[in-house]
């Protein structure tokens, strides 16, 4: 609130009053000029920051927000999947269906160590199995994490995303290992369990940990025996695909063990 001193226009104002009026007018004018100057400075600063951000982010591939990237019809609207997926898991599942699976189909079933050995053989039949089996869904999400982590460029400030995908992948992998152990302890040998073992073996091959991969293949052979032998299940598709990966890595010991499991 401001108080303005006024005088009777018929009377002559005192010198002191005129001085106070002039001081007040100068103060108001200076304050207004200062406000305009601050507004201009803040506007210029904002433009400079936006320009700097634009230059910094130039050339970066935008990573979609898993929470908002998917439309409703891509988020299991009828709740038919084997497990209820969180928003990030919905994104991982969609990534497998829309990116990983088309890549596998486009490049055939051949998998080499140098080119996408982190992509297991989980094509359409395995996706169908993941829809009805929660353990297979864990394997699918694990594979999607591996693929996303492999696609990130460390030179583009994606270290936090890489760490997140690696952490989630490790958790899904441990979940797969626990599921296999529980199935073996209960003597419950299923197609899903056998597939999990192969997924784990392929991941160790990708990491060049052939000793651990050999243990997985040995466990796979024993599980096949418990299941009733190779004739009791359709091993041709499963083992044929893992054999291609083993040959690409020149793992002679694993090739021999896998071949023995097929006989």
3D architecture notes:
- It contains 9 helices and no strands.
- It is rod-shaped and about 120 Å long.
- Helix content is 67%, strand content 0%.
- The chain folds into 2 domains: 1-58, no CATH class; 72-262, no CATH class.
- The chain has helices at 15-56, 87-106, 124-132, 134-151, 159-185, 191-206, 210-227, 235-249, 252-262.
- The N and C termini lie far apart (97 Å).
- With 263 residues, it is mainly alpha-helical.
- It comes from Stachybotrys elegans.
- This is Transcription factor domain-containing protein.
User: How many extended strands?
Assistant: 0
User: How many helical stretches?
Assistant: 9
Q: Which band does the percent of strand residues land in?
A: under 5%
The average pLDDT score comes to: 70
**Could you say which structural class the secondary elements and strand pairing correspond to?**
mainly alpha
Unreliable stretches: 56-64, 109-121
Please identify the oligomeric state: single chain
* Residues in helices, as a percent range: 55-70%
Ends apart, CA distance between termini: 97 Å
- Rg, Cα atoms, Å: 33 Å
Largest sheet composition: none
